[in-house]
Amino acid sequence: MRLLLCLFALSSSLCAAASQPNIIIHFIDDLGYGDIGPFGAVKQKTPHLDRMAREGMKLTSFYAAPVCSVSRAQIMTGCYGARVSVPGVYPPGAKNGLHPQEHTIADRLRPLGYATQCIGKWHVGDQPAFLPTKQGFDHYLGIPYSNDMLKTARVDGRRVVPLVRDEQVERLLDEADQDRIEEIYTDEAVKFIRSTQATKNQEPGTKNTAQPFFLYFPHTAVHTPIHPGKAFQGSSQNGRFGDWVQEVDASVGRVFDTLRELQLDTNTLVIFTSDNGPWLIKGPDGGSAGPLRGGKGSTWEGGVRVPTLAWWPSKIAPGSVCDAVAGTIDVLPTCLKIAGAEVPAQPVIDGRDLSPLLFGQSKESQREAHYYFSSYNLQAVRQGPWKLALMTQGNARAKGQTEDDAKTNPRLYNLDQEIDERTNLAAQHPDIVAKLTALAEKMTAEIGGNEPKSRRSPGEVENPVTLYPTSDAPRSKDAPKTGAKPADLSKLQPGEALAADKAPQIANKPFTLTCELTTAQRDAILIAHGGASTGYALHLSGGKLIWAIRHGKTLTTAQTDYPADNQPHRITATLGQKGQLTLQLDQNTPITATSPSLIRTQPKEDFCLGHDNKVPVASYTARGRFAGRIANVKLTTNS
User: Fold this and answer.
1) Which of 527, 524, 549, 525 is nearest to 536 (CA)?
2) How far apart (Å, rounded) are the C-alpha atoms in residues 548 and 538?
3) 578 — alpha (psi -120 to 50), left (phi > 0) or beta?
4) 259-294 confidence digits (pLDDT tens)
5) Residues 43, 237: contact at Cβ < 8 Å?
6) I need a labelling partner for 609 at 20 to 30 A (CA). Which of 100, 236, 238, 371 fits?
7) What residues does 496 pair with on adjacent strands?
């Protein structure tokens, strides 16, 4: 009987794995609502996207964010950018990025057996702690930010952007090199899809097996500077912008051809969408919002409402149209649901599962409302056809566009009756204004403004640097300091900190941390060195003494009971050569655990005694100041 049960469980597991769909997300850069055939474009031809719409669904009220880094954080985490502290656009070498402890779609799918790859523009942080391979992706290839963020390479004086493979710069691309970027990306995408279908069982007579995959394909196109490949130059009736749209269409077509060739088309969900509206100030290089008002950078519909298609032949009805409100924040919960996983209750996710809409089971939005944030400012809210603008919105600097009708606040628009937001109906519908205002006030209190209740910490590193040496000298406050002698830890007092250059140098070294602790507190931060990507901490939580080692999202702890006698106690905490944690209180039996490895990179944050002054290393329960004595602090490396 036990054998039969085991065989049944194994069979169920294999069936579940076999039924898991593949998932592909095409995320285009700065593509406007009117820039592809299914949404009215005529000067550039998009036959593959036209076919995608015929065979799948067109989503007409699908929302991103006004600018790219925010949209990318949203599609990866299922949260508004304000919730995860991604308010704007990150330049090369920025200290901030998507917090490594946030869970991306890739983080959620990889434990389910998915192969994961990101190809293209990442743009939620270019520091090592923020790159895709630290955010759930097995591999990465792409320009990690916008293609106009060129810097002067120190090696040869060219203005370039980096093409990064996994965590290393593969080569530097000047503007002329960008003519091949879509080709490079698409070749990599096809290669990845094929690799997941390779034979795993090599024994004769055994059945070939394949791995479900998640491909996140955030294209560099059609962000300026516009660089269509040579085969597409002059191919459209809309200049080089139209040419590049046509190359994007061809890229999507190659991916579809690969799915059909490998007979994966009936078990693959493909989503095509954009990160924000068209960059109108770029003129003919900026695209079109079609019937919508405004463009990139604004919370008018043209800035955030984006052309979106969904395709899954066995599940989504051909030629279907969805007018319900949805958006990039809904992609993560949708992917989890169709992969057979539950959407976690914590941490909070703003998005909702779209599968009832995609599969024709509902025509109603899966969310109570949609919120239009610009940075941390909530500028508008939509429920059903009604959009309430709470403040004067920018016009995205489009030539000839007036804002005279947008200076009265609040303004209420019926988007079903007037998609271009021209007639203010607030005076005629005070009840709807009051209802939407209440929703907006609640969301602002939660994650907006200057005093949010539920905004999560930003990702942050000390002394950020660009991915390749540039001729621009780093700012003195950002320049890494090397060669300094570590300071004497025993002289520190609780509440003090050592700068990163004077902190213990523990990268790739086993080490032992010792101290003498006297405190009556049951929750306290004792020692902290590091941040979201790497580090170590010693703290009290509910009367437990905890020794914690951080490796990105993995936090390994060893813990033991701490007496409430307010007497001195000796603590010895060790990280061994193979990642072993050992925690000993006085002469008691040591407690052990095993982390993935040594701490591979030197923490760039301060060494703190009695507090943690930056992004927390561990999950603390302490509140307020440390009260007690931490004496004879010493850290010795064991190699």
Assistant:
1) 549
2) 6
3) alpha
4) 999 999 999 999 999 999 999 999 999 999 999 999
5) yes
6) 100
7) none
* CA separation for the pair 305, 370 (Å, rounded): 11
Does residue 480 have a cis peptide bond before it, meaning omega lies within 30 degrees of 0? Answer: no
Pairing of strands 268-274, 22-28: parallel
Model confidence over 576-600: pLDDT tens digits?
999 999 999 999 999 999 999 999 8
Phi, psi of 433 (to 5 degrees): -60, -45
**Bigger pLDDT: 209 or 390?**
390
Instruction: Answer for the pair 36, 360: CB distance below 8 angstroms, yes or no.
Output: no
| φ, ψ (nearest 5 deg) of residue 328 | -60, -30
Instruction: Report whether pLDDT(484) > 70.
Output: no
Whether residue 603 is preceded by a cis peptide bond, meaning omega within 30 degrees of 0, is no
Distance separating alpha carbons of residues 14 and 17, to the nearest angstrom = 5
Task: Catalytic residue, from 48, 68, 335, 608: name it.
Answer: 68
* pTM summary value: 0.79
- Count of Cβ atoms closer than 10 Å to residue 231 Cβ: 13
Question: Does the pLDDT value for residue 137 go beyond 80?
Answer: yes
The helix (H) or strand (E) run that includes residue 399 is none
Which residue type sits at 165?
Answer: R
Coil, strand or helix at 404? helix
Contact (Cβ atoms closer than 8 angstroms) between residue 606 and residue 500: yes
- What is 301-363 written as a DSSP string? HHHHB--EEEE-TTTSPTTEEE-S-EEGGGHHHHHHHHTT-PPPSSS-------HHHHTTS--
pLDDT digits (tens, 9 = 90+) for 514-539: 999 999 999 999 999 998 778 999 99
Please name the residue ranges forming H helices in 172-212: 181-196
Element (H, E) at 4: helix 2-19
pLDDT of 287 reads: 96
Our CA dihedral for 317, 322, 325, 327, rounded to 10 degrees, sits at: 50
* Separation of CA 160 from chain center: 24
The backbone torsions φ and ψ at residue 459, rounded to the nearest 5 degrees and listed phi first, read: -75, 135
pLDDT at 401 over 70: no
| Secondary structure class of 61 (helix, strand, coil) | coil
Spatial separation of the C-alpha atoms in residues 148 and 226, rounded to whole Å: 9
Distance CA 264, CA 408 (A): 53
Nearest to 121 by CA among 220, 22, 28: 220
Of 194, 137, 184, the residue nearest 163 (C-alpha): 184
Catalytic site includes residue 611? no
For the chain, the farthest-separated pair of C-alpha atoms sits apart, in whole angstroms, at 81
Instruction: Quote the pLDDT of residue 209.
Output: 66
pLDDT of amino acid 67: 96
Query: Helical H runs in 448-539?
Result: none
Strands 524-530 and 534-541: antiparallel
d(C-alpha 199, C-alpha 208), whole Å: 5
Tell me: the pLDDT tens digits for 50-109? 999 999 999 999 999 999 999 999 999 999 999 999 999 999 999 999 999 999 999 999
**Would you give the end-to-end CA distance of the chain in angstroms?**
54
27, amino acid identity: F
Summarised one tens digit per residue, pLDDT across range 215-252 is 999 999 999 999 999 999 999 999 999 999 999 999 99
68 is catalytic: yes
* Distance of alpha carbon 545 from alpha carbon 584, whole angstroms: 10
C-alpha to C-alpha distance for 265 and 332, rounded to whole angstroms: 21
Among 48, 99, 103, 123, the active-site one is: 123
* pLDDT for the residue 417: 96
